[in-house]
Amino acid sequence: MTDKSTDGRMSCTGIDFYSCEEALNRLNEYLDHELNDAERMVVLKHLEICKPCFSRFSFEQTLVVSLREKIVALAAPESVRLKLKGLLRQREQSE
Amino acid sequence: MAEAPSQSVIEDIEPHQPVDPDLFESEMNPHLDALYRNALRLVGNPNDAEDLLQETYLRAFRFFHQYQPGTNAKAWLFRIMNTVFLNDYRKKVRQGETVSYDGLEDFYLYNRVVEDAGGIDRPQIENPQKAVLEQLDIEMIQRAIDALPNEFRDTVALATLEEMSYQEIADTLEIPVGTVRSRLSRGRKLLQRALWAYLNGEETRD
User: Fold this and answer.
1) What is the rounded distance in angstroms from the CA atom of residue B157 to the CA atom of residue A68?
2) What angle do CA A19, A25, A28 make, to 5 degrees?
3) A94 vs B138: CB contact, 8 Å cut-off?
């Protein structure tokens, strides 16, 4: 049996680094850059020694980045920008 | 006191000091695309989204004297948009789809991809992951976000797509930071489940 049936709660615990569960509890904050430097270091240490978590965290990170990259293409249409620009000036003149 | 038709949306607000449109634009326009996407998520179609964006933008201009330079312009704009939306579009508030929270696991999408690739006993899983991510398109992402229940949709979208900090999200939605955390935790799993369903050509709606 290999690592593949686990759900992130494998028991590779240590003193200077988190267990899988402790790392998992910080997944979102890790992805969103909400951890302070010290906490981030401990998560990174865990990922160095725990290959399954490394794969999972990498996937999560790539997922967030690729969702973000794709959605950026959805921008305010140029026609709307021009209209808004005009409306501000129109207001100015009417006062 | 004749108001131009385009001003009707803000005529109920007190007079303000004249604002330099150039200054306003330099502060606010960097957030226009994010604001437009937020409008799309709130109302669900481009026409209404443009209207909501316009009303929000004009109201922000009108209230610009209340904006503190150097504070978070994005959160400020999003808050105005939420207010306009709740006032003017209340009847159109979208409920999202009815979702089940059963079987919500950590690393949902990753696990499905690995299972899929593991069918032929293949330890190398780098490529299947990449392939899955490449299949995701804007429409799929939008649908998956739309399918989230309201309270999760905003938080997940702002953190994941608009890269807002938890504090910015808390300020925008006027909720505690702890609530941002818990909604993200559950909401991202729901998002992954919806993405997986769409990737496989399924509908999450039963």
Assistant:
1) 10
2) 130
3) no
